[in-house]
Amino acid sequence: MALDAMTRTRIETDSLGSMEIPADAYWGIHTARALENFPISKRPISVYKDLVRGLAMVKQASARANRDIGTLDPFKADLIDRAAQLVIDGQYHDEFIVGVIQGGAGTSTNMNANEVITNIALELAGREKGDYAFLSPIDDTNRSQSTNDVYPTAIKVGLGLDLRSLLDELDLLRRAFLAKAVEFHDILKVGRTQLQDAVPMTLGQEFNGFATTLGEDHSRLKENAYLLCEINMGATAIGTGITTHPDYGRSVLHHLREITGLDLDTATDLVESTSDTGAFMSFSSTLKRNAIKLSKICNDLRLLSSGPQAGFGEINLPPRQAGSSIMPGKVNPVIPEVVNQVAFAVAGADLTVTMAVEAGQLQLNAFEPVIAHSLFQSITWMRRGMHTLRVNCVDGITANTERLGAMVGASVGVITALTPFIGYAAAAALAKTALLTGRNVADLVVEAGLMSREEVIKQLSPARLSGLETITAAIPIVRAGAAETGSIPTDH
Question: Which residues are catalytic?
Answer without folding.
Answer: 324
